[in-house]
């Protein structure tokens, strides 16, 4: 069965600090997809990135970067030079190719608080 | 333009009542979903529909009945509301039902059962 664990429930940083969010997943599938979503205080869920299980290249998008390591079943997310607007709950999620439909299994989320 | 919209945004009701939440997407997607987010922020899928056909039903009580009149709409009807139904309900859509498709979420409906 698929499972996503985000061990950090809350992280507090001061603006301009870097922050890394951990995500560990479990799956028996060889083909699967990993996602990160952001939920700001306003409540909506915003898609950030998708990674497939065959692509272990790290990705950078502005101040955001992602490190995917199949050997440790991890898909970590780093915010560089954090800003107050980064304050949100961040969710890691997994979908398996073998599962019916496009079922997303979410981790418990990590709340990031960036203080000015 | 709103991609995935839900109405109402807030819903406060008494135990035992029946209520509906509406969802519409204008992205031309084939697949739509309902998720429940509890008070601890945990998100769990409830249903998914692909072209009006039920694909996923995640052991949700049968008091919850989704209805998809067309592929752009997926409504959620809840009978005999209970205190434990209080949560934020998110509708989402994706291009199709394959697992690589990212899902786009609506703004959520906060349901409070008194």
What would your notes on this structure say?
The complex is a heterodimer of chains A (116) and B (114). Chain A has 116 residues and is mostly beta strands. Chain A has strands at 3-5, 10-14, 19-21, 24-26, 32-39, 46-52, 59-61, 64-69, 74-79, 88-96, 105-106, 110-115. In chain A, the strands form 3 sheets. In chain A, strands 2, 5, 6, 10, 11 and 12 form a 6-stranded mixed beta sheet that branches. A 4-stranded antiparallel beta sheet of chain A has the order 3-9-8-7, with no helix packed on it. Chain B is mostly beta strands. Chain B has strands spanning 4-7, 10-13, 19-25, 31-37, 43-50, 53-57, 64-70, 73-78, 87-94, 104-105, 109-113. In chain B, the strands form 2 sheets. In chain B, strands 2, 4, 5, 6, 9, 10 and 11 form a 7-stranded mixed beta sheet that branches. In chain B, strands 1-3-8-7 form a 4-stranded antiparallel beta sheet, with no helix packed on it. In chain B, strand 7 (64-70) and strand 8 form a beta hairpin. Chain B is globular and about 35 Å long. Chains A and B meet through strand 5, strand 6, strand 10 and strand 11 of A and strand 4, strand 5, strand 9 and strand 10 of B.
How does the SSE layout of this entry go?
The complex is a heterodimer of chains A (116) and B (114).
Chain A: E1 3-5, E2 10-14, E3 19-21, E4 24-26, E5 32-39, E6 46-52, E7 59-61, E8 64-69, E9 74-79, E10 88-96, E11 105-106, E12 110-115
Parallel strand pairs in A: 2-12
Antiparallel strand pairs in A: 1-4, 3-9, 5-6, 5-10, 7-8, 8-9, 10-11, 10-12
Chain B: E1 4-7, E2 10-13, E3 19-25, E4 31-37, E5 43-50, E6 53-57, E7 64-70, E8 73-78, E9 87-94, E10 104-105, E11 109-113
Parallel strand pairs in B: 2-11
Antiparallel strand pairs in B: 1-3, 3-8, 4-5, 4-9, 5-6, 7-8, 9-10, 9-11
